[in-house]
Automatic annotation (TrEMBL):
It is found in: Membrane. The lineage of its organism: Bacteria, Pseudomonadati, Pseudomonadota, Alphaproteobacteria, Acetobacterales. This is Acetate uptake transporter. One of its GO terms (molecular function) is acetate:proton symporter activity. The chain crosses the membrane at residues 45-65, 71-92, 104-124, 130-148, 155-176. Belongs to the acetate uptake transporter (AceTr) (TC 2.A.96) family. It comes from Novacetimonas cocois.
């Protein structure tokens, strides 16, 4: 699907956007349940980040490339790479292959992703309001997490956890709407906060 206001996939090929959005959304919710101190860190979060948030999103990006969608390709492949790199950041020190990242380095890593996401958010200005919500809230999430690391303020991570769940559920909502719209041929739920103007024939 092109990242615009239309809900219909014009290509005869399958639309990979719901797959990528669902992989991103579900993994983001799961990780931020931990950031909000609602669940402990565990294998389920790491496996989800490696497989659904990482590899599956990366595949969705490759499919967007095949559909000629530069924005979708960049988004899904980049955030797939983010999840893969995040899991590697956690595993490498345990394997003795690299030292653990300092708070300053981890904060810088997260803020770089915040900068990337802010640029991507600008790219959603011609897309639906829900696309804008997903990317804008993700920008805020990266800024909160990066600042929490740099300042070593756990309360910011806690706040980020709840904000991140909002971001993740927004992506899940958008994925569900796009998936079901593809099945029934029309939008089944709104993706714009404000209604689009209706043109009345003269």
């Amino acid at each position: 699907m092109e990242w615009n206001r239309g809900m219909t996939h014009n290509s005869a090929k399958a639309d990979p956007a719901p797959l990528g959005l669902m992989g991103f959304g579900m993994t983001t919710v799961l990780l931020n349940l931990h950031n909000a101190h609602l669940v402990p860190m565990g294998g389920a979060i790491l496996a989800m980040g490696l497989v659904f948030g990482g590899a599956t999103q990366f595949v969705a990006g490759l499919l967007e490339y095949a559909n000629g969608n530069t924005f979708g390709m960049t988004a899904f492949m980049s955030y797939g790479a983010f999840w893969l790199s995040l899991v590697m950041l956690l595993f490498l020190p345990h394997w003795g292959l690299a030292p653990a990242s300092s708070p300053a380095l981890m904060g810088s890593y997260l803020l770089m992703w915040g900068l990337f996401t802010a640029i991507m958010t600008v790219g959603t200005l011609r897309a639906s309001r829900m696309h804008q919500v997903v990317f804008a809230s993700l920008t805020v999430l990266f800024v909160l997490l990066g600042t929490a690391e740099l300042l070593e303020q756990p309360v910011l991570t806690l706040i980020a956890g709840y904000e991140g769940m909002f971001c993740g559920f927004s992506a899940i909502y958008l994925a569900a709407v796009e998936l079901l719209a593809g099945q029934v041929g029309h939008a089944v739920a709104p993706v714009d906060v404000a209604p689009m103007p209706i043109e009345v024939p003269a």
